[in-house]
Amino acid sequence: MMKSILENRPALKAEIEKVAEVAGYLWQKGWAERNGGNITVNVTEYVDDEIRQMPAISEAYPIGTTVPALKGCYFYCKGTNRRMRDLARWPMENGSIVRILDDCASYVIIADNPVKPTSEIAAHLSMHNQMVEKGKGYKAAVHTHPIDLVAMTHNPKFLEKDVLTNLLWSMIPETRAFCPKGLGIVPYKMPSSVELADATIEQLEEYDVVMWEKHGVCAVGPDIMEAFDQVDVLSKAAQIYLTAKSMGFEPTGTTQEQMLELQRAFNL
Q1: Which residues make beta-bridge pairs with 144?
Q2: Tens of pLDDT along 19-68?
Q3: What is the distance between the alpha carbons of residues 148 and 168, in angstroms, rounded to a whole number?
Q4: Dihedral of the CA atoms 150, 36, 190, 242 (nearest 10)?
Q5: Domains (range + CATH), the chain
Q6: Quick one: CA torsion of 128, 134, 140, 142, rounded to 10 degrees?
Q7: Beta strands in the chain (DSSP E)
Q8: Which of 38, 113, 110 is CA-nearest to residue 72?
Q9: What is the pLDDT of residues 215-251, one digit of tens each?
Q10: Which residue among 142, 165, 191, 207 is least packed, with the fewest CB closer than 10 Å?
Q11: Where in the sequence numbering do the catalytic residues fall?
């Protein structure tokens, strides 16, 4: 039986276990139907000399774009056509660790199994490339399909800049506190396309969470838990709004003055 890359590497194992935990949450919340959603984590800091010497177990695959800041970096990636509910139980059977090659335009799989990464690899690695270039210290990206937030993108007025951000901030103070940059919007683009990747990167200049119209949400953060938490608080705010609407009234929300007071109090 082949030895797992996680054996005798407790820090790397702990990071992958966090990914598995978040995958379980996404499935339990109904945000990850069938093989929906993706997770990628930059695990370069956990790579030792033995891992660097590991041979590829796949051919070289094109990324679909160029990621110069990621030369020689290593990522855990959810596998394409794999289910979050399975990843939650068996992360190394439903994902793989990849190495970015020196051309910065292709990658190989090095462990544990030749499970090809998510079809959204161009968007994910473009996000990681920007995070490294900007020195944000962010290591994780998650894409998922929150029912309430996706539903709200079917209303054209919510697609205008910061309209949805301010509405969600106003539903509960924690949203303003824990998602302080708000929610960027990307108009509908073909899933897995380079155009979607480029549009996402543009929004991440200003936001840490980006809504893909009629598709889902992408969030980045220092680790996968932080990225997940931002989507979770935005979803809670959306649920409060939609619950009030289902009760037959428009929620008042906190005022701009109250939100500014919160901003000052928590140094947001």
Answers
A1: 217
A2: 999 999 999 999 999 999 999 999 999 999 999 999 999 999 999 999 99
A3: 11
A4: 0
A5: 10-265 (3.40.225.10)
A6: -70
A7: 38-42, 61-62, 74-78, 95-100, 106-111, 140-144, 183-186, 209-212, 216-221
A8: 110
A9: 999 999 999 999 999 999 999 999 999 999 999 999 9
A10: 191
A11: 120
User: What is the token pair recorded at 153?
Assistant: 């993108």
What angle separates helix 194-204 from helix 121-133, to the nearest 10 degrees? 30
- Cβ–Cβ < 8 Å for 216, 146: yes
| Nearest-angstrom CA–CA distance, 3 and 107 | 22
Here the tokens at position 40 are: 């990628």
| Strands, sheet with 106-111, edge to edge from the N-terminal-most edge strand | 61-62, 106-111, 95-100, 74-78, 38-42, 140-144, 216-221, 209-212, 183-186
For residues 8-26, one letter each, b for 16 or more C-beta atoms within 10 angstroms of the residue's C-beta and e for the rest, the string is ebeebbebbebbbebbbbb
Task: For Cα atoms 136, 161, 196, give the angle at the middle one, nearest 5 degrees.
Answer: 60
The tens digit of pLDDT for each residue in 77-130 reads 999 999 999 999 999 999 999 999 999 999 999 999 999 999 889 989 999 999
Predicted TM-score of the model (pTM): 0.94
